[in-house]
Amino acid sequence: MDKIRTHNDLDVYQLSFEAGMQIFEISKNFPKEEKYSLTDQVRRSSRSISGNIAEAWRHRRYPKSFISKLSTSEGEAAETQVWLDYALACEYIKEEKYKELYLKYNNIIGKLVNMIRNPEKWSI
Fold first, then answer.
1. Is pTM, for the whole model, over 0.85?
2. Quick one: pLDDT band at residue 1, thresholds 50, 70, 90?
3. Domain locations along the chain
4. Does the domain spanning 7-121 belong to CATH 1.20.1250.20?
């Protein structure tokens, strides 16, 4: 296994960044009246995941801080799933895209939980 040097090397970071970009692209098609509500909310929560992963990586010498930032990322991923629920219910996205993204966020959450459960694996 290659040595992880930066947060960019983490699978969970790469996956969360990719998912955040997918959210950005699909939310471009949301109605204009959603600009300051659903569009803004789903973009913020989806982007926050990778941002908090990057912060957690820089805090990894302090297990409690590392875990806290990863927990925030996990919460943001779950929040993004809620906004996807709304987007589907409002018929802003198709069910196929909803399922694809929802599963991607489940995967992100699973990876974060594994890191939270084993912080010593990631510490300096």
1. yes
2. very low
3. 7-121
4. no
